[in-house]
Amino acid sequence: MFPQKSAMPRRILLAATVVSLLSGCDIPGLGPDPRIAQREEEAKAIGGACRHALRGLEDCYALNPKASKAAVFNGWKDMDLYMRENKIEGSPSVMGKAPGAAKPASDIETEPAEKKS
Predict the structure, then answer these.
(1) What is the pTM of this model?
(2) Can you tell me the mean pLDDT for 17-22?
(3) Contacts of 41 (CB under 8 A, 6+ apart)
(4) Phi/psi zone of residue 30: left (φ > 0), alpha (ψ -120 to 50 degrees), beta?
(5) Looking at per-residue confidence, does 26 or 59 come out higher?
(6) How far lies 5's CA from each of 10, 16, 35, 117, in Å?
(7) CA separation for the pair 8, 23 (Å, rounded)
């Protein structure tokens, strides 16, 4: 009676449809780990903070050994560019200095004060 059509084109069409529908889905567990992205962003923030505190890269690496050096460098470089474009001066770090612990050399008295009688 009627010639039979091959089922192959239908299967190919069905497979293509399924693949195209699933390609837009976010399947849990198959994407990047959010903790890795968070660590990278924290390392970039560390680099930016080091640049703003007028620290060199080597000091920044030494103070943050667990942070990714590449991400720290990217943060440092981005902050450097931002500070140069906006003419922002850095602020020196006060880490490790107690208030009033040490006076600058110009504030130290070299001669005893005269006694008033």
Answers:
(1) 0.55
(2) 72
(3) 71
(4) alpha
(5) 59
(6) 10, 19, 53, 123
(7) 23
Q: Which residues contact 60 (CB under 8 A, 6 or more apart)?
A: 46, 47, 50, 72, 76
Is the distance from CB of 9 to CB of 37 less than 8 angstroms?
no
pLDDT digits (tens, 9 = 90+) for 43-66: 999 999 999 999 988 999 999 999
Going by pLDDT thresholds of 50, 70 and 90, the confidence category of residue 5 is low
Tokens found for residue 57? 């890269």
CA 46/CA 67 separation, integer angstroms: 8
